[in-house]
TrEMBL record:
Pfam families linked: STAS, Sulfate_transp
InterPro entries for this protein: SLC26A/SulP_dom, SLC26A/SulP_fam, STAS_dom, STAS_dom_sf
Entry keyword Transmembrane helix: yes
Domain STAS, residue spans: 497-697
CDD domains to which the protein is assigned, alphabetical: STAS_SulP_like_sulfate_transporter
Positions of transmembrane segments: 97-114, 150-177, 226-246, 258-279, 316-335, 347-364, 384-404, 411-427, 442-473
Keyword annotations: Membrane, Transmembrane, Transmembrane helix
Main location: membrane
Name this polypeptide is given: Solute carrier family 26 member 5
Amino acid sequence: MEQHVTPCEDSPPPLMYRVERPVFNEAYLHTQLLHPRERSPKTIRQRLAQQLHCSSERAKAIALSFLPILTWLPSYPVKEYLFGDLVSGLSTGVMQLPQGTFAVISLMIGGVVVREAPDSMFTIQALNGTATNTTVFIDTEARDARRVHVAVVLTTLVGVIQLVLGLLRFGFVAIYLTEPLVRGFTTAAAVHVFISQLKYLLGIQTPRFSGPLSALHSVTAVFSDITSTNVTTVIVGVVCMVVLYCVKDLNERFKKKLPVPIPGEIIVVMVSTGISYGLSLSENYQVDVVRTIPSGLLPPAIPDFSLLPNLVTDSIAIAVVGFSMGISLAKIFALKHGYSVDGNQELIALGLCNFVSSFFHTFAITCSMSRSLVQESTGGNTQIAGLLASMVVLLVVVAIGFVFQPLPQTALAAIIMVNLLGMFKQFRDIPALWRTSKIELAIWVVAFVASVLLGLDLGLLVALGFAILSVIYRTQSPKSIILGQVLDTGLYCDVDEYEKAAECTGIKIFHSNSSIYFANSDLYLNALKEKTGVDPVHLQAIRKARKRKLKKESAERESQNHKSPQKMSAVVKLDVELGVTHEVVAGGGSQNHLEVQGNGQVAETHTESDSEETRFLEPLCPVHSLILDWTPVNFIDSVGAKAIKLVIKEYAAVDVCVFIAGCSRTLLAELRTLQFFTGVATPEMVFPTVHDAVLHCRRQTAPPTIPAMQ
């Protein structure tokens, strides 16, 4: 009588999984069940025709990929986004006026122009009345003009490099910028920007530093000149920081009640500019202000390309750092706001901006951390905010630059520092990564430390190298386990972790979460032998030891037989009536016994020597089958394939069969390309699932069925 459990009315009945099929192996699947499609390889002409095929839909898709603004601008939500973009654009534009886009890029370009146009090239000696009295001075006008030419040519070359890399789809390297690397790198960039603003906050003058340890040199220079701090400058900067922080806190606390965020940056800039102008902070208290802002635009001109050979290496470094900074911040904001970024599009955009604008005497641009944070925190939603910020800068340069001449530099430093707080909150990643992933924590720390100490260019290379090494390390130290079957299911789990998972008698199922290639094939085989406890070399040694022992014992018996001649006496008594079987007694050294059976026939039974032979023929270990679970294996190379075939042969020599389970069709295609299924390896030993392999092993080793006696 069967009992059926009635499920609760509130819960649906459980889904049942019932499949009845034969055990499949790869030979059957490939020849009988699966029929690969016959595909003729495409010629080069066909491939080119497919790639160069042109249609209206393809042209539209290409245009939209190069100009993504066409996809969202027609549906721009004016009521929802316009005010936030307006406030954000004004705030960002005002901040952009007195400083360069990104401090690290500015330092890198500054180092190049100083190297290519040093002061020593523009020294002039002037006579003072007599031939013996001369005065040496620097022609600053010629020096600055030369440095501008160097910066313009450098910008042109940076743009060309970025544009070419974008067209060659080099943006794929952005996938190697993992989140821990990006967050460590951008935190280090925030440290560089923060350090660069210290001298403006304190009102002191320090030299510029670039290259490795530049951050430490800058901090040392600030603290060595700390006694010359301008107290008024510090007061203005601290007040601006407090006001701005409070405004941002109010915006965060009441963001659901406020129709639009309070434009704290604009308020700080306007109030500090008015106070500076009214109190004459620059003249009366020596507060450093923006001062003269050049007005007007220079006419376009062709850069001096004769400087190109000396600038190639520097241009590559600046192009890579600029792209890395831009894509890193883009990834952070994309993750925060739920959209995706295209690395190739970023390269093309940066390249076009740098190349075209260089003909108008502009500076190499990249994504500014501080301005981006200001734009995002003040309510910016789209690129309209960036467009408005550019229009503000253009308007100031052309017409109203004089309005912002009294703006204190310390107020701008305060705005930048407050907006960097969001980046410094990324230090919270350290305890979180410590709990979740030590390897990702190491990537974060290496990216941060290397970028702070070596600079963003070298630090990025070190971080990328370390991230790639971490991938190699993971393949070199995978987790290897032995699987066991969960009772009455086709599921197989780690026997050390789950109580319900039990090993199959005589079968070891080995699972390692890595691919098999030249760098880890030996490690894979070592882990296989260690976890299963079945080492073919050790078993072969045991077999050879048994052979030597048997040979020695046989020699000793033969020696004894030569010393004492063999004597045989047999007494056979037949008692037909009682049906008794009597033993035939063999004299000394006898190796055989004879039995007289009830039917009168004599049967031979083996004793001592045969027991030795039987003991030699016993299995060397209780395991008769090994199953390699290749579910996590993504690829295998020729070295790995040869190693697996070798270990199959080694185990076959000690009567242990090796089977493979869970191969993907892609992996099987690779194995066929590598001619894996020759010799000891055949498709019959490959199964689609672990359960198929287990059932095959059980049937193969099951004892033969003995027919019942009639």
